[in-house]
User: What shape does this take?
Amino acid sequence: MTLPVPTPGLVIRYAYLWRNEFDSGSEDGRKYRPAVVVNAVVTGADGRTRVVVSPITHRNPGPERGLLIPPAVKAHLGLDDDRSWIVTDEVNVFVWPGVDLAALPGRPGRYAYGKIPAKLFLELRNRLLSSNPPPAAVPRT
Assistant: This one.
């Protein structure tokens, strides 16, 4: 098993914990879903890497809360044909790799779908940075 390096724009399979679930007392995400690595920073003397991810969903969060993923990008990543959005008003923060990272279905040992194009990643990053209020960050253990 070789884990990928968590680089910005990488799409991983991850048990995302939604903010409303966290606020209700949940500690675990209900299902594994694709999520985009937004940032990865090595912190502390122990050299642990903290990762920030935005979830991908089929449910339309609205134009102020999500970015539609173009069909060609979904095909490149090997995702289904249904419309999907990258959520821009909340994120999860965790220490890499964490217990919520999972192998892709039918592909043991592979944890990433690939990377989104730079243009889409910059749009995501700019949306997150300019958000007012800032995206809700859900800390994961």
Notes: The two ends are 22 Å apart (CA to CA). The chain has one domain: 10-131.
